[in-house]
Amino acid sequence: MGAGLDAPIAELERKLAGSANGFQRLALTPSRWQQYLLARASQDPEFRVRLLRFVDVLPTLRTASAVADHFRQYFRGAAPEPVRTASALASRPVFRPILSQAVRRGVLAMAHRFIAGATPAEALPALRHLAKQGVGHTVDLLGEATLSDAEADAYQARYLALLQTFAADLEEVAPRGERWRGVSPINISVKCSALCPHFEPAAREHVSAVVRERLRPVLRLARQVGAFINFDMEQHRYKDLVHRIFADLILEPEFADVADVGIVVQAYLKDGLSDLGRLETLAKRRGVPFTVRLVKGAYWDEERIVASQNSWPVPVFEEKAETDRSFERCTDALLGAWPHLRPAFGTHNPHSIAQAVAKARSGGIPDPDIEFQMLYGMAEGVRAVVATEGYRTRVYVPVGEIIPGMAYLVRRLLENSSNQAWFQFGLGHAAPASAPEARVKERPAYVESGFRNASPARFFDSEVREHMLSALAKMRGAFGGSYPLLIGERRLSDRPQLEVHCPAEPATVVGRVAQASLADVDAAVAAAREGFPAWRDRPAAERASILRRAADMLEERRYELAAVMVYESAKPWREADSDVAEAIDYLRYYAQEAERYGQPQAMGGVLGEHNEYTYQGRGVAVIIAPWNFPLAIITGMSTAALAAGNAAILKPAEPSRIIAYRLVEILRAAGVPPKVVQYLPGRGDQVGRALVEHPGIDIIAFTGSTGVGQSIITAASHVRPGQRNVKRVIAEMGGKNAIIIDDDADLDEAIAGTVASAFGYAGQKCSACSRLVVVGSAYAEVLERLRHAVASLIVGPPDDPATVVPPVINGAARDKIMRYVEGGKSTSRLLVEGTIPPGPGYYVRPTVFTDVAPDSPIACDEIFGPVLAVFRSRDFDQAIQIAMNSAFALTGGVFSRSPRHIDLARAKFRVGNLYINRKITGAIVGRQPFGGLAMSGTGDKAGGPDYLLQFMEPRVTTENTARRGFAPD
Ligand code: NAD
Known about the structure:
The chain is of the alpha/beta class. 46% of the residues lie in helices and 16% in strands. The strands form seven sheets. An eight-stranded parallel barrel has the order 1-2-3-4-5-6-7-8, surrounded by seven helices. Strands 23-24-25-22-21-27-28 form a seven-stranded mixed beta sheet, sandwiched between helices. A five-stranded parallel beta sheet has the order 18-17-16-19-20, with helices on both faces. Helix 4 (64-75) packs across helix 5 (81-89), helix 4 crosses helix 6 (96-114) and helix 24 (558-569) runs antiparallel to helix 27 (657-670). The longest helix is centred in the middle third of the chain and has 26 residues, at 573-598. The termini are far apart. Bound molecules: nicotinamide-adenine-dinucleotide. Nicotinamide-adenine-dinucleotide is lined by residues 624-629, 633, 651, 653-654, 684-685, 688-689, 692, 703-705, 708, 711-712, 732-735, 766, 862, 864, 890, 932, 936-937.
């Protein structure tokens, strides 16, 4: 389509753009101020960030002095002059009420420009006004993120109430006129993510069932009152899930004949065109048409951030012009699919509109079959011109409270202050190609040096899901296999076998692993001592390339390895996958670090002397690992030892031996000599202890509980007969980590982050949150939302992708956790206990206590299970004191939007890893080097630039290069 249409397109585009010139983007009172602020924001990126962040936090500020205080914090120093002056006034108490009122009023005025009302009833006048002008609506209900079933139910009730309210006012809200004949008078846009608290793309059957259950009554009522239901599209990772839910629902016999439904296609996505193809096929298969709203897409910034953080390909076009071209290609496809698909175009861009009009007309598509949609509060002039062309226009009208509405408002302000927006440039001027890149910060050093993090699996992609499902099936097929010891060249099976059981199905034997004896310990140490010198003396680059080869092998086998952990250690899909990704990262990161340290450094620089500073491996390392990151931690510790030039004997934890066996196999296959990497499973207090005490051991790399760590440090300090070295102990130990939720925090993020940190992998992470400190006025709301969110957590078997909380590792762990829970019930107030499935797995209910005494066991001990203790603090300073009141100092978290409090936390919340405004688990190699202080560890950061040093010893060689008064330069 499109040949010969240049002239009509250009003409209509001119008309549309002309109308836009007269249109004031924000003609408000006091509009000048807003115009000024947005204009400044579009020129000054730093001010833009501050302004958007301030607008975002404002509605949660509960007092005038909080408003004034935040205003000062955000705009002191770096803001245009009038804003800075106002911020100076904010320091004087007498001005605070008036300043606060003025600021609130200003932001509310901005919000009301884009949001029609807090409730459907409040929005009615706006809809009536639109209807009178012959303009239709589609209403979007703004709301908080859905974190619980209670919140999903509430959302459903709001959709139903919305339909009822509008149905009662049908005459007034329905636009009249010929072009509206046969068109539903009511139109609402639903967000599937609002109807399911665990919107997990990997679990699409589960999510589709839950969302459809809540949507059916909405569709029934819609049919009854004559309403159209549109499925909105959100982030790319949810796109296929929304398509799936839409298809499942409209193919149900009850709804198979409903034509008044629609879905969105986003042209900024690189796969926008194929999405359209898929929808056309669906419509043909169903035999009843539905509508497709073609838009450019509203999550451009977020998509790029998510892709960058996960090392995923960017799903959106990065240049505005490419999106515009994609919109045109999608227009062709959408019009080509008519009448199976009914086209609706959601855009304000004159050229995009003009080309759609011209192509539709030249394609002979009747005007009433096409619709144009625009956002409430934007582009009124353009809309009027489209209407005069004879087309139906519809406005996307957000309705909702101001706090949850802020995310929407910020998106609109982003657009209005963007130097990419077409109205900033006028017709015919392309947006500058460099603009988006200008906002990307300089790449950090570790990226420059060539290291890249492995990407987490894209489980939203069906192909990836299939890989995982088939790996799980294959692993089940391999249940019951035997795993020998690997000592030097020997594979030893004639030892007592220990059965490994599945925590979700304790009767199932995953495998049988040979147990090392004390004689095996001697044999392994002797072999390692033999293998060590040659390995130490190989160039660092050779060792590094072997480890990189192993990383590639892990990557090729990532689903197989993840499947082992699903059954052996009850890791849910995502957790198992990130474990593999972390292991891959360690291999590549330490390979690179070994090369860095492998370069001799010249010291001094005086004439006649050459000083060379080099590192060498220390000797034989024993790797004593925990079970909770079954692959990542053992890989990290052992490959650091190997990269630095040591031999390594791997002593895995009892519950995670099979995965450790697979690792040793891979390391050997990649080229590590058998004497240099050995597999020696056995009981910690026997084999582990014997290795620690062995005179032939030089390094002990331990990760595990603080009690065992301390006993190892003590045991290693005794020198035994035959010992030739002072043992080096690297010990990473337990935690009792706290998150602080400040009274201005974004509670959607804070609750989701706390729940993920406390209950992911059933709380069995050293980094897990087990204490929550809530500041003052946020307390009641936090408790209410937390209670529902925890009650809605899906506890189940780890091979089900819907599971969030799997069983704990074994019966002993369950019993120990339950003793704490019982103790907690008698000393604290039980806020909530989640539900567990029936059956034999080692399930523990996710549990939250409040009113916890600061010195009680649930406040102080590492429980290592899904148990959270909540504390209330008077203010932020006290919150930090509570958080720091622990013998441990591993991780900590703060959710706050006060720059001053964030600075305070940076200075005073002294833990090994502090996380601000995100969950506290999930450290990434090279980005968040990980390790604790105090009783949490010896302070060495795994995955960081100093870690390898623990495994090496430095040497200095000095040569006098002067001979008879002559020296080379
Ligand atoms: P654990 O201390 O029981 O066991 C850890 C390892 O030590 C196992 O391999 C075990 O066999 C071995 N072991 C036990 N007794 C021994 C002894 N006397 N001599 C030598 N070795 C011995 O810990 P776990 O249950 O496997 O793991 C959970 C613990 O690990 C938690 O406390 C958690 O916080 C901690 N952890 C810390 C980090 C970190 O980076 N700081 C990471 C993961 C786990």
